[in-house]
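Complex record, two chains
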Amino acid sequence: MTDKILAKYKARPKDWILKWSVFLGIVLIIVLSLPYIPYKGLTSYGQVIAKSIITGILSPDFSYFTDFSTQGIPYLLLETVAIAFLGTLVGAILSLPFSFLSSRNLVPSWVAHLFTFIIAMIRTFPAFVYGLMFIRVTGPGPFTGVLTLAVSGIGMTAKLFTESIEDLDKGIIEALDASGCNTIQKIRYGIIPQLMSNFASTTIYRFEINVKNASILGLVGAGGIGFPILAAMSAFRWKDAGTLLFGLVVIVLIIDYFSGRLRKKLATGL
Amino acid sequence: MINWIKEQLHPAPLTLSNGKVVTPKRSAMVYVVPLLVVLTLWAMDITRFNFITLFRRGGQFFVMIGRMIPPDWAYFPSIIEPLIETIMMSITGTLVGAALALPLAFLSSDNIIRNKVFLWVNRLFFSVLRTLPILVFALLFKYIFGIGAFAGTLAIAFFTWLIMTKMLYEIVETIDMGPFEAIESSGATRLRAFWSAIMPQILGQYISITLYNFEMNVRSAAILGYVGAGGLGLLLNEKLGWRQYDKVGLILFALLLTVYAIESTSRLIRKKLS
């Protein structure tokens, strides 16, 4: 018995050449990239900053959480969530025409290819790039944040919408057709029920991402909690930064939790 | 109209052909639609959503895009350097992050670590860190290590580490535990059993998610420049500020090409792996 096992073990595939060449390849890539990533040591005050960041973030000032003015954390968080909510909703509505026009089972294939390409192009650029552009169109403020999230959201939302449209079960529509339904009834009872839960799930997922994005958008001045965070950090007010980040973490965790539960419910049926 | 609403609120009972009477369930839409309308109006109020501004200024966005075409090709030589820097930052950041994700995923999988308290504390700590946007890490590292690509790479590595750990332990938790138990029962340590029984099972997916993260990182590396952490972002903001839209067009075009090239290569490799 043991002899057989040992014999099999000796005859194991010899892939050490492959393993070592992959390993050496990775090392080579890292060595090649080192000149582009110069390590200049800590800044002269680096250690002090590192220490105050950690103590600041670990000791948030909770009095900000009871400040209900427009400068207080509750309002900033509410604004961030509102930007994400509206951005997601507008983005989902904008995604609808794109997704139907890029579904191979609905439109001629050249149209589908063209719109798939446009969606891919929209998806290439991070939300941040759209933010930088929109800020010059509608000026700073939460409204710009909404527009940014709406446009940058098309890339992902439309792609996922398209996937659910292409998965449509045509049998149901044919069955409705056979029992004498008109077009509107076919859409109402054959198509909408099939798409609704997928679309809702995608939109909720996008909302989750947009809450995180909305907090970044503040860095370009598009409203939300991002700008106060940036301002606090560049003024070295670590305690304030820690407090703001704490608020952000809490809201993101809460939204992640509920969105996850809601999506699970949608996937398994209400 | 009113009848239709009444019908939605109190669906009329239906009599089936066998004489049975059934009451259809009220549609969830009855609750969802009014809730959405109220929330939308509230959010519009908070964000000062303004249709007039949208119609008056919205076209400007497309005017801006129009000015980017044709891009200023002569500007290309001066963006090669930041572009390579962006790619190198994401390669190194992804590799370091991916390498660090493996041990942490080992420590976060509920089928390998059986200490519930440790698992729970560990996961809570890292999911809190994961909620922070990558730009916040970039800013922190910038203050500690000074302006430049090093801070950006570190931010990418850190962020990749956090995200990949979660993706990896979710994979590890769904694998076949038979080989692992067999090796463990023959006296191997858990680490050794992980390496011999679990690594071969997850290797393909491990490489696949590493490539996926690499794609995402190229995009985020491009914007890290905005906080002074190297890459294309700073250049982009500068040219937008100076209204040199043809140069902006070129930067965006270069980014598009790079992301497209990387995405198609990685998709090819991932297809081969699965």
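Note: Chain B has a mean pLDDT of 84.
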